Amino acid sequence: MLDKAVRLKLLIIVAAQLLHVCDSYFEFSTCYNSTNYTINSNFAMNLNRLFSTLTANAPATGFYTDAVGQGVDRVYGLILCRGDLSAGDCGNCATTAPMELMKLCPRRRRGTIWYDECFLRYKDSNFIGNVTMDSGFCMWKLANNSDPVLFDHQAGQLMRSLSASVLSNRTGLMFASGEISFGDYNTIYGVAQCTRDISRDDCSQCLAGRISRIPERCEGKVGCIVYNGNCGVRYEIYPFVYNATASQQPSSPSPAISPPVPTMATQEAKPSPTLFNTTRRSASHGLRKNAIVLIALLCSSVFILCIISVLSVARRSKRGKAPDEEEMKGTTPSVFHMDTLKAATNNFSGVNKLGQGGFGPVYKGTLEDGTQVAVKRLSEKSTQGPAQFKNEVNLVAKLHHRNLARLLGYYLDEQERLLVYEFVPSGSLDKILFDPTKRQQLDWGKRLQIINGIGRGLLYLHEDSQLMIIHRDLKAGNVLLDEEMNPKISDFGLAKLFQVEGTHATTENVAGTRGYMSPEYAMNGIFSVKSDVFSFGVLVLEILSGQRNTSFYQSELAPDLLTYAWKLWQDGRALDLVDQAIDEPWWKNQILRCILIGLLCVQDSPKDRPTMSTVVLMLVNSSMILPTPSPPAYFTSRPIPKSSETVRSGERPILSSRDEENQNSGGLTISDLHPR
After folding, report:
1. Same domain, yes or no, for 487 and 355?
2. Is 571 a catalytic residue?
3. Exposure of 457 by Cβ count < 10 A (0-12 exposed, 13-18 middle, 19+ buried)?
4. Rounded distance, CA 389 to CA 566, Å?
5. Are 342 and 488 in contact, with CB atoms under 8 Å apart?
6. How many whole angstroms separate alpha carbon 251 and alpha carbon 315?
7. Given 66, 473, 532, 579, the catalytic residue
8. Same domain for 550 and 485?
9. Over the range 130-168, which residues count as b (16 or more CB within 10 Å of their CB) and which as e?
10. Which range has highest mean pLDDT (47-56, 518-527, 621-630)?
11. How much of the chain exceeds pLDDT 70, in percent?
12. Rounded distance, CA 86 to CA 471, Å?
């Protein structure tokens, strides 16, 4: 009879193998909230041809890129298999990935799916050879190691070693696997990999960025996965690599491992992961086939616990740590001459004025080389000296996020302080959203894309940037739209430049815009991240309604948009809020959810408002049950006329009612919302 120690060791190995099977099917996907294509269109046919080409060519080398079609119907694609896979295993994953991605991103013009064995990405614009700024996703085991300090040290050493091996590997795979010991009996196993369309320098920066995310996301955890669109790293306490010699690494020793915990948490501003179960291995993996029922139950449990853990795991604060390598890789901002900026803006001509913010006017300019820029002329409110101001600008310029307008440079002297930003071609959101004609181009998909993008950008400023920036003037005029209607928050560093420190403070210099400021900030100068959450909520309701919060002044409907939205929600007529340009009733549940999120953000008490990390999770996780909001700030009990009532003669109706079917739904019958 086996002694207790041997039985325990066998049990641990079996548990590890079962978890290995489940892990080999983990999946994470995103559709980027992109626009849809039409079934049987040229784009659809090109996408099918692209998938066929990628699937056919991936097994030979484990990596393939291609582009199919012309003009607006052209689609680009990339597939990458993990470097240790056989051609057969790569082919199996390459066959599964397109089918699953088509289900997860139906008719979307962009999509990405990650498995632990392969990665597939397609897009309607050329991304091949470019390093993505997408944050990707991060997953980690919930269980902590018994010696987290030693474990983190060894895991970090392994990841850095693998990164170096990827760059020095002469096979061209840009893949490395290996292991390292911790303690007397245990081993950490890991892999690192880059897509082969990028340079080694870009690969090095990408891997450094992924590895730098491990300490705050996976501190002490027994397993961690950090991927984005160009590279990824992973470590576990059991051997999950099938062919360690593929990367010319030492073969794995006999595993003396601690039992992994069958639960992972996931956190990024992306859709929730979905685990799936399908048999893709050869007959040599007989254990998997015999245990398929147990695997299905195990993976289902993992999925359920993933959802629970996402809701409970708070983001770790990064204050006091060295700046993230990926975040700080930007170049030093340019120092412009005043003559250059005067020439670019025609001496700050009113014709070139784009708008006016709380910190000063903005002008469109064209540099000598033809580059278009936006120049902000700061008001004389800063008490910083030139040296300190310059240091802050240098830091802000290094913050990179796809939903932030990039700061290119500055001009500084005793009298003038000018900031030079990238020029975003579609202009500010307010110019389109509040124009009765232009807002017709904002269908529901684009509005949701804008809401999600603003949320992600704000989350980055609050929790993921080293500076921890509170915007203080988030509004439609400070959200810029690129040619694809992707939002970019502007003026995001000005509060920092004006020496506004801390997570909760009071200031006599209240800089903001009427209608967007939270009550505690507008009346008492008290600001925090919850002040920005309030502004975000106002912005969400404006995007949904197509109306300014302040457009209700002296209206019989309500004193402001927040009150109007709240009363409609309470009366079961929430869809009456929605702009009639959004004539897509099949999205009404999603629209109602966004209305509720907006109301949660504008609640009177800051402590009742969610954080931006929770807001982003609410937006991307449709299965998450939302709380019931309390009345918003500035709420009055003044009754709102029924939709059928006539507005006073000569007064333009602020909002029109929806059809009777939508009125009856009213937001009260959606099972995952539970409003009163």
Report:
1. no
2. no
3. buried
4. 42
5. no
6. 36
7. 473
8. yes
9. ebbebbbbbbbbbbebeeeeebbebbbebbebbbebbbe
10. 47-56
11. 69
12. 50
So what's the pLDDT on residue 378?
81
Nearest to 540 by CA among 514, 562, 557: 562
Q: Are 326 and 205 in contact (CB under 8 A)?
A: yes
DSSP, collapsed to helix, strand or coil, labels residue 536 as helix
Residue 1 lies in a domain: no
**523: which 2 tokens?**
């009346």
Do residue 217 and residue 342 come from a single domain? no
pLDDT(416) > 90? no
Q: Encode pLDDT of 336-347 as tens digits.
A: 999 999 999 999
Query: Domain range spanning residue 229?
Result: 16-313
Distance CA(36)–CA(56), nearest Å, equals: 26
DSSP of 582-615, one letter per residue?
A: ---GGGHHHHHHHHHHHHHHTBSSGGGSPPHHHH
Per-residue confidence at 634, pLDDT binned at 50, 70, 90? Answer: low
CATH of the domain at 358: 3.30.200.20
Has residue 512 been placed in a domain? yes
Q: Which of 178, 154, 156 is nearest to 166 (CA)?
A: 178
pLDDT tens per residue across span 31-75: 776 678 988 899 999 999 999 999 999 998 899 999 999 999 999
pLDDT greater at residue 69 or residue 634: 69
> How many Å apart are CA 314 and CA 332, to the nearest integer?
33
Neighbouring C-beta atoms of residue 662, cutoff 10 Å? 19
pLDDT at 667 over 70: no
Cα 296 from Cα 656, distance rounded (Å): 50
**Which pairs with CB-CB distance under 8 Å and at least 24 residues apart come from 48-56?**
50/75, 50/76, 50/77, 50/122, 51/77, 51/98, 51/102, 51/122, 53/77, 54/78, 54/79, 54/94, 54/98, 54/120, 55/79, 55/91, 55/94, 55/95, 55/98
Shared domain check, 554 and 473: yes
The confidence band for 554, taking pLDDT boundaries of 50, 70 and 90, is low
Q: Where a domain ends, among 370, 390, 422?
A: 422
Residues 493 and 615 in one domain: yes
Choose the final residue of a domain: 283, 313, 343.
313
Average pLDDT over residues 382-388: 63
The count of domains in the chain is 3
Same domain, 659 and 596: yes
Higher pLDDT, 520 or 161: 161
- pTM of the shown model: 0.49
Rounded to the nearest 10°, the torsion over CA 229, 618, 107, 660 is -170
Whether 373 contacts 408, CB under 8 Å: yes
- Quick one: how many helices (H) and strands (E) in the chain? 19, 21
Confirm whether 11 is domain-assigned. Answer: no
What angle, 0 to 180 degrees and rounded to 10, lies between the N-to-C axes of helices 529-545 and 612-620?
30
How far is Cα 80 from Cα 66, in angstroms, rounded to an integer? Answer: 12
Burial class (CB in 10 A: 0-12, 13-18, 19+), 57: middle
Instruction: Reply yes or no on whether the pLDDT at 407 is more than 80.
Output: yes
Closest-CA residue to 520 (of 608, 588, 436, 581): 608
Do 90 and 194 lie in one domain? The reply is yes
pLDDT higher than threshold 70 for residue 278: no
Residue 10 falls within a domain, yes or no?
no
Q: Are residues 483 and 625 in the same domain?
A: yes
- 146 Cβ contact list (under 8 Å, min separation 6): 258
- Encoded tokens for 398: 């290094």
For 438, which DSSP code?
G
* SS3 label, residue 278: coil
